[in-house]
Please model this.
Amino acid sequence: MKIRDHYLDEDVVVRKETPNRSGPFGNGLPDTIIIHYTAGGSAESSVNTLCDPKTKASAHLVIGREGSIYQLVPFNLIAWHAGRSAHQGRVGFNKYAIGIELDNAGRLTKSGEEYVSWFGRAYPENEVVEAVHRNESEPSCWHRYTEEQIAISQDICADLIENYGITSILGHEEVSPGRKVDPGPAFPMDKLRELLLYRDRGAEVQEEPSPFPFKGVVTASKLNIRQSPRLKAGTVAAPLTKGTIVEILREENGWYEVDVKMRGWVKKEYIKA
Ligand SMILES: [Zn+2]
Model:
């Protein structure tokens, strides 16, 4: 997906006009993407709502469940999606962020065998995710996002990062906690950030720490200690005895290189301190 003149390519996106927008972003902005769900019944109905001057709401993009993409506002102009919002010392995120809406019914209420949206539509169990919201402590039911929606969101975010130098991806729930719960726990927000923003740092974190050195104890009654990890190598000292504590420095072909500390009493005049 390519971005030209602040629009996604016309062969992948349906352009719509909304009056619900402001002027251009300030210098160095946008630097953030905010992910939302529509809490609606279809992408088309949400697009119509976001193009209605009475709603005073919009977003740059709406992504349908089958992967259709609508662009309502070019990426260089401010859309009205975040409302009252604050995060890390910044207030009013419309002026910082590109808004992406995903067609999704939002939180669902279990009623018998059915899961019902706030607007009264029932969804089958295979479209439901039960999970605890990041701002809550009890699990509840959420409308599942489709694989297409998640894949397209990821592609678009990657393109926006490349084109605009986006440095953070946030959920509406993170900039308007208490007031908003979208996109909710059905959206893989942490995974998306890990993949697109923190990949280098992630690689460092995954590096295995060395297990060496660690301590061991001799279990044989007499154990030869050799100059190199071979049976033919000469010994460096008298054999170690059972119960001797060794510090294991490294491993090679079934051998441990060890450091042996002995403790005992020796005549003072033969020691250089
Ligand atoms: Zn929202």
About this structure: The chain has two domains: 3-206, 214-263. The pocket of zinc ion is lined by residues 36, 172, 180, 182 (CB under 6 Å). The first strand starts at residue 3 and ends at 4. Residues 3-206 form a domain with the Lysozyme-like fold (CATH 3.40.80.10).
